[in-house]
Amino acid sequence: MDNRDKTIIQTSIIGIVVNLFLTVFKAVTGLLANSIAIILDAVNNLSDALSSVITIVGTKLASKKPDKKHPLGHGRIEYLSAMLVAAIILYAGITSLIESIKKIINPEKAEYTAASIIILIVAVITKVILGTYVKKKGKEVNSGSLAASGQDALFDAIISISVLLSAVVYMIFDVSLEAYVGVIISAVIIKAGIEMMSETVSDILGRRPDPEMTAEIKRLINEEPEVRGTYDLFINNYGPDRNYASCHVELRDDMTVDEVDNLTRRIQARVFREMGVVLTGVGVYSYNTKDDEAAAIRNNIQSMVMSHEWAIQMHGFYVNLEEKTLRFDVVLDFGIDYADAIKTLKKELSEKYPGYNIDITTDVYISDI
Asked: How far apart are CA 108 and CA 113, in angstroms?
């Protein structure tokens, strides 16, 4: 077991123990005080304990070694476990809302005591400490489910404060607010569950790569003296800290295959060493170095292409003056029809450079330029 998995499991176990302890004390207190708000708070703590169990199971399954059916490992299981945690929180929130509405319709008198107030104060302090600790550990090891559990614990502290305040108001003014507080608690829980579910679904679908990561990878590659630019950086995520990527680099048109091979191997080794990202492929664009006219044509075409607001970037340009062929890639923004964009560009370029065979490849705006 590596340090990351060990940290996640140890932190989750702490969360389980603390939440079970709070569940028992809050449940007993809620039953004795006939308080729906405290009982719902106890149920919420129980769901947190179950969430931690799921986090542990998900981490263990995600750490399984690659096999024939899953050659890139099982890391995405962590996203499924995070989704289960979100589903549990959502279910707890909906159940709490139903019970709170029932209490509004059929109110029952609560009986708070000094002991119940003390227990609620202890619960608030405990949840703040636990939430801060778990969230910090989750960020340290890049565990979405662990960070979500920590955030949920901090939400619980707010919930416990609201229960505490409603108890104090009842004891002082003899006004029962707990059923209405229960509705607010439920709304907070449901909102947290929906947000967590949305984040996890984005991870599973494949979200846009982290701009800082893509910028750093491009910086490392562009530091190689032979590289004029890095493009088409595509990152596939197979679980936290399991990233596989590919890209294109722009090189001189007079480099030998041996030189390109040595360069790409050097790039792959450096990116993995410094970023932990596996570059599965490094494609090559060549640029003209033997004719000044080619550079002038490139600059002119780039101005024409980039005059369109839907054109994000042009790269991979190469022109053969003898054969009258030119090729380049253009990154298009979302919302534009690719076929229409290519038709427009070819029409404009054909008018400017009649007789040329124009090959334009469209690229998706995958990562920040």
From this structure: 16
At how many degrees (to 10) do helices 178-205 and 36-62 cross?
A: 20
Q: What is the DSSP string of 212-233?
A: HHHHHHHHHHHTSTT-SEEEEE
- Cα-Cα-Cα-Cα torsion 136, 138, 144, 150, nearest 10 degrees, comes to -60
The closest of 4, 25, 18 to 149, measured between CA atoms, is 18
113, two tokens = 């005591």
> What is the reported pTM?
0.66
Q: Smallest Cα–Cα separation from 349: which of 308, 291, 288? A: 308
Residues 6+ away with beta carbon under 8 Å from 267: 220, 221, 224, 227, 249, 279, 282
**Based on the number of CB atoms within 10 Å of its own CB, is 67 exposed (0-12), middle (13-18) or buried (19 or more)?**
exposed
| 251-286 exposure pattern, b = at least 16 Cβ within 10 A, e = fewer | beeeeeeeebeebbeebbebbeeeeebbbeebeebb
* Long-range contacts of the stretch 289-293 (C-beta < 8 A, 24+): 289/252, 289/253, 289/254, 290/253, 290/254, 291/321, 293/321
pLDDT band at residue 238 using 50, 70 and 90 as cut-offs = confident
pLDDT digits (tens, 9 = 90+) for 246-303: 999 999 999 999 999 999 999 999 999 999 999 998 999 999 887 788 888 999 999 9
